[in-house]
Amino acid sequence: MQSVVSRWFGAGFERLHPLLQALHLHGGVLVGPIETALGQGLARPFGRAIARKLGIPLQAGRHTLRVEIAHRPDCLLWNRRFDDRQRMDSTFRPVGAWPGGIWLEQTGPVRLGLAVEVIDGGWYWRCRKAWLFGVRLPLASFPQSIGYKRIEDGRYRFQVTFTMPLLGKVLSYGGLLESRPARAAE
Q: Which InterPro entries does the UniProt record give (predicted)?
């Protein structure tokens, strides 16, 4: 069996942890507690603006996250639900192939060109390009996103942090989620 993800990675797919391989072959549902945090001082309003645009809770602290991962022949879908209220949906389209290719992530008006590094079986995103409402932006003017997903003790650890030059961290969210079979998404 293959998926859009396994085809993009090619032989490199085997470098991912077996549980990440299964998730990206069959899809699935990830559920659990997360922590969100906003930057301090001048960074705080920027973090709130990013959270508002992406559908991330504006209040820092503990939340519940449900992520439904599905595959189409030409894309990967991530549908996130924060506290069963706020929604953040992303479509990932592959360009080229690993290790030199990227994924184009579309989340609302934001599109990111993301390279992937595999480190100790984990998947680490590296932002290479950014667009807002279809307009390409210089990376220096756009909040940088640092994200990863890896397996810890049989669970799915993920972290996403947005930073800005001179301000540092403006927003982050992450947690340790339990995996459920894809049919649990129905």
A: DUF4166
Cα–Cα distance, 152 to 158 (Å, whole number): 10
Q: What is the pLDDT of residues 106-161, one digit of tens each?
A: 998 889 999 999 999 999 999 999 998 999 999 888 888 889 999 999 999 999 99
Is the backbone peptide bond immediately before 143 cis, with ω within 30 degrees of 0? Answer: no
Q: Which residue stretches of the chain are H helix?
A: 4-9, 18-26, 43-54
Domain boundaries, the chain: 4-185
Does residue 59 sit in helix, strand or coil?
coil
Question: How far apart (Å, rounded) are the C-alpha atoms in residues 76 and 89?
Answer: 11
Spatial separation of the C-alpha atoms in residues 101 and 113, rounded to whole Å: 9
Token pair belonging to 34: 């997360």
DSSP assignment, residue 139? G
Task: For residue 17, give Cα distances in angstroms to 3, 29, 32, 59, 145.
Answer: 16, 17, 20, 33, 23
pTM to 2 decimal places = 0.89
Classified by CATH at the fold level, domain 4-185 comes out as: Lipocalin (2.40.128)
Neighbouring C-beta atoms of residue 173, cutoff 10 Å: 24
Tokens of 39: 């930057």
